[in-house]
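Please decode residue identities from the backbone states below.
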């Protein structure tokens, strides 16, 4: 495996799946089956499960918990939302921001996502920033322009210190939940492009340490080949993270 251990992350995004009872069993099952991971493993869980899953990962080396969203305001009359302070107090380590499903169904754009990134960092929560192009963009071969703009809008005004806390997840929208995976070379090309952008904006030290994860139909059958690419540091896994055996296999890939 070519990825340096400090960059290696396998994160599960459970999305709106699992009850609290099911989620606790899933996290425990993964920890039992995958054991002590190389690098980090993150469970991205529904908000109602954050406290419980944090208790579970607190006893396991290398395991962390992520929220799937966070509001940008400090507090106030935002019914149904969760603030960075709430997540931090609950012991949440990471927050997934900018997922394509939130861009699509909740109208989130990179300027809002940028605000959320800053707020999370202010509270010591590490953002997992998701970017990625839709199918028509890929077919027109404009993916670098589109992903480049996403990265620029969301991340370019961060300080070096702030950027060193950010994880990037490249998730081509056409590969999410479709069973269609980017080829290892397509993933590598985009990850290398993103790392060059980070290097140009923040310097090679930050770029060499930033974790860039691939997301989109990662499965036990393709994880090893994807993660074997030089700039693919691990994965953000949806469907296959909902089964302890398959997620453990991906962690071990
Ligand atoms: P799938 O692994 O189900 O394609 O989902 C990927 C994803 O959206 C992770 O955030």
């Amino acid at each position: 495996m070519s990825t340096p251990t400090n960059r290696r992350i396998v994160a599960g995004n459970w999305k709106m799946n699992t009850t609290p009872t099911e989620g606790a069993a899933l996290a425990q099952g993964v920890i039992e089956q995958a054991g002590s991971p190389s690098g980090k493993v993150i469970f991205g869980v529904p908000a109602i499960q954050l406290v419980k899953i944090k208790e579970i990962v607190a006893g396991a080396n290398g395991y962390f918990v992520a929220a799937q969203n966070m509001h940008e305001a400090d507090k106030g009359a935002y019914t149904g939302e969760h603030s960075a302070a709430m997540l931090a107090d609950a012991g949440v380590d990471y927050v997934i921001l900018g997922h394509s499903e939130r861009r699509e169904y909740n109208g989130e754009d990179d300027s809002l996502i940028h605000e959320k990134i800053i707020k999370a960092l202010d509270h010591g929560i590490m953002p997992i920033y998701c970017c990625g192009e839709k199918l028509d963009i890929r077919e027109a071969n404009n993916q670098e322009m589109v992903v480049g703009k996403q990265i620029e809008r969301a991340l370019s005004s961060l300080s070096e210190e702030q950027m060193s806390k950010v994880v990037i997840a490249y998730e081509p929208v056409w590969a999410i939940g479709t069973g269609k995976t980017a080829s290892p070379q397509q993933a590598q090309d985009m990850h290398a492009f993103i790392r060059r952008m980070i290097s140009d904006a923040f310097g090679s030290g930050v770029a060499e340490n930033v974790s860039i994860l691939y997301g989109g139909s990662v499965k036990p059958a393709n994880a090893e080949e994807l993660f074997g690419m030089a700039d693919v540091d691990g994965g953000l896994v949806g469907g296959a993270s909902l089964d302890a055996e398959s997620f453990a296999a991906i962690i071990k890939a």
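Observation: The first helix runs from residue 20 to 34.
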